[in-house]
Amino acid sequence: MKFRWKRWSWRQRLAWLALAALLAVCVDGFYIEPARLVERDYSLPLSNWPLACDGLRVDVISDTHTGSPRNGLDKLDRIVERLTASDADIVVMTGDYVILSVLAGSYIPPATIAEHLKPLTARKPVYAVLGNHDWWKNGPKVSRAFAGVGVHMIDNMALPIDVRGCHFWLAGLGDLLEGRPDVRATFAMIPTGAPVVAITHEPALWPRIPAQATLTIAGHTHGGQINPFGLLTPARFKPHSHQLNGLYTIDARSLFVSPGIGTSILPMRLGVPPEISRLTLRAAPVHANVDASTGE
Fold first, then answer.
1. Which of 32, 87, 100, 200 is buried most deeply by CB count within 10 Å?
2. Structural domain of residue 250, as residue ranges?
3. For residues 175 and 180, what is the distance between their CA atoms, to the nearest angstrom?
4. What is the domain-level CATH number for residue 143?
C-alpha cells in the first residue's frame, strides 16, 4: 500500500498532523519528561542577607513522590548521587516524599525511602518539613523514618545554622493544608534581628511569615506539572495558584517555589521537568538570573 499524502484533502492532512502531535505530547509527557532530572542554578539577591553569608549554596528538592511512574527508588538514588556530589553547603527538602494516589503509581513506605537517603545525610546536613501527602500517609511515621537516618525534621521548629562562618536561622513551618503551621511560636525561638530562611511546603503560607525571613522556600505546586513553555506560570505571586514556580519578591521579602520531582494524580509532566534547584544566596543587590544550562 503506497503512502498517498498528496491525494489527501487538507482536512485529512490536518487530522493526521494533529494525531501525530498528540502522540508526541503523550510520549514526552508520560514517558520521557517524568524520567528526566535537571539541575538548574539560581542566583537570588536577598535584602538584609549578611555579607558573611554571601554565596551560600543551598540545594532544594521538593515533592519527590517516590513511587510515582518513572520515579522509583532508582530515580531517588540518582537524586541522592547528584546532591552528594554538589558543592552546596546544605540540602533543603520541602515535603511530599510519599504518594497518596497517582495513576499507575506504587506506594513506597517512608522507611524504605529513608534508607536511600543515608548516603546523603552521611555527607551533608539535610533539613526537611512534611507535605500534605506525608500527613495523609501518617506524618509522624514519615518524620520518624527520616529522622532515623539523619534528616533534621523541623516542622514548627527553628534552628541556628553555622556554615563556613555564615550564621543564620532556619525556620521550618508545618504544611498549611495539614501540618498546622505555628508561625508565631516558631519565630519566637529566633533572636530579634537575626537573619532567617524559612522552609514550608505550601507557598500560600508566605504572606503569614514575618518579614524577618528574607527568604522562604516552598514546593507543592510542581510548577503546574503540565505547563508547556511556562505559559501558565504567574509573573507575580498568587497565593493559591498551582502554577507557581521560581522566584517571587515583594518589597524586601523573597519566595522561591521549587517545581519538584515527582507527579501527583496524573503521571505526566510537560514543560516542567523534575528539578534539583541549586540556589546561591547573594547579599549584593544584583539582578536575579537563572542559568539556562541544565544537566540530564
1. 200
2. 10-288
3. 6
4. 3.60.21.10
Q: Is residue 293 part of a domain?
A: no
For the chain, the distance separating the N- and C-terminal CA atoms, rounded to the nearest angstrom, is 41
Count of CB atoms within 10 A of residue 293's CB? Answer: 9
pTM of the model: 0.91
**Is residue 146 assigned to a domain?**
yes
What domain count does the chain have?
1
Q: Going from the first residue of the chain to its last (296 residues), give the mean pLDDT of each consecutive group of 10, the final group possibly shorter.
A: 62 73 76 94 95 97 96 97 97 96 88 98 98 97 98 98 96 97 98 97 98 97 94 93 96 96 94 97 63 41
For 86-114, letters b (16+ CB in 10 Å) and e give: bebbbbbbbbbbbbbebeebeebbbeebb
Task: Please report whether residue 258 resides in a domain.
Answer: yes
Task: Tell me the DSSP string of 42-104.
Answer: EEEE-TT--GGGTTEEEEEE----BTBTTBSHHHHHHHHHHHHHS--SEEEE-S--S-S-BTT
The Cα–Cα gap between 254 and 102 comes to 32
> Residue 227 CA to chain centroid, in angstroms?
16
Are the C-beta atoms of 105 and 268 separated by less than 8 Å? no
